[in-house]
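FAQ: What does the model actually see?

It sees only this:
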Amino acid sequence: MKKQLRLILLFVLAVFFIQAAHGAKKFSHPGTLHSQANLDFVKKQITDKKEPWITEFNRLKKSPLLNRKAHILTTVNSKSDQESANMRDDATAAYLLALMWKITDKDVYAKRAIAILNVWSNFQGFTSESDQDKLQAG
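And it is asked to produce this:
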């Protein structure tokens, strides 16, 4: 019994020392494409009007996707080119709007991105029951 208590105490101390040595790690979502450091770097390049960032930013500002209204679809038939394109373009628009919000700090872009995502929050699934459905779902 004494030996078991020693082992448990040793284990608890080892865990404590490992955590203390490594410190608390900041959570980084595995699904994000850009870190805050990446976004800060790009924002500075744009602010400093450095190429190619400023040219691409100006091109992004002209994108019709920044004014896109979401399509209200609760299901998508992936065999339908139009429905697939609507889904793809809405996702791209939400992503680009979120980037614009992070770069410009203008809430209007965040609100538009949120509006698109909110419309898609009622999405139920795909209806064609094909392998294409799996590809579109990611």
